[in-house]
Amino acid sequence: WMDYSNSYGFAYTLSNSDFGIIFNDETRMLLQRKDQYIHYVHNDGTDIICQKRSIPLALNKKLKILMHCGKYMSESLLRAHEGNAPQVAADGDNPSVEVFKWMRGETEMIMMLTNGSVQVNFSSDHTKLILCGCTKTVTVIESAAYMKTLKLDNLRNCGASVQLKRKLSVVLKYVNIFLSK
Fold it and tell me: In whole angstroms, what is the distance from residue 67 CA to residue 61 CA?
């Protein structure tokens, strides 16, 4: 992800190589790399899905920004955990998963995805937590060598480390903030 909010918005790349941006005007655009479709969501929630080559003229500037950000991220950012990253899961009714809300905390970057997952990146130690409501799991990524997915029921019944409990409470705090908006 890249925080371009001083100029464009918040850009991100998903584990399936799709990339998108939430523009400062609260619209968002995603490029599905596999089939080159663009999904554009207006700030009123209405959306357009079209092939990249047939995008409406009014969206050309935003498409150029999206492509610039996508190129920069693919060339400059480390592809941490490639091959081991949890894949974004789409449901049958909504094949494109994208970030639809984001927030920067004191030392965290929080992203809510359209499939109900929440990812929190902790800049202090580069840990990532991915909370998935549909599978009732949390995936903990601490380094390129360590990734573990835990069932929330097991955590409730068996407990968790102090550090994980602290991080989960941060995740819960931000989920509540997202839900209250």
Answer: 10
CATH code, residues 99-180: 3.30.1120.30
Every domain of the chain and the residues it spans: 2-76, 99-180
Q: How far apart are CA 120 and CA 14, in angstroms?
A: 14
Residue from 133, 16, 56 nearest 27 by CA: 56
Annotate 45-108 with DSSP letters as a single string: S-EEEEEGGG--GGGHHHHHHHHHHHHHHHHHS--TTTTTSPPP--BTTB----EEEEEE-SSE
Residue found by looking up tokens 């968002």 in the block: 28
pLDDT tens-place string over residues 34-86: 889 999 999 999 999 999 999 999 999 999 999 999 998 888 865 544 444 44
Architecture of domain 2-76: 2-Layer Sandwich (3.30)
Q: What does the alpha-carbon distance between residue 9 and residue 165 come to, in Å, rounded to a whole number? A: 31
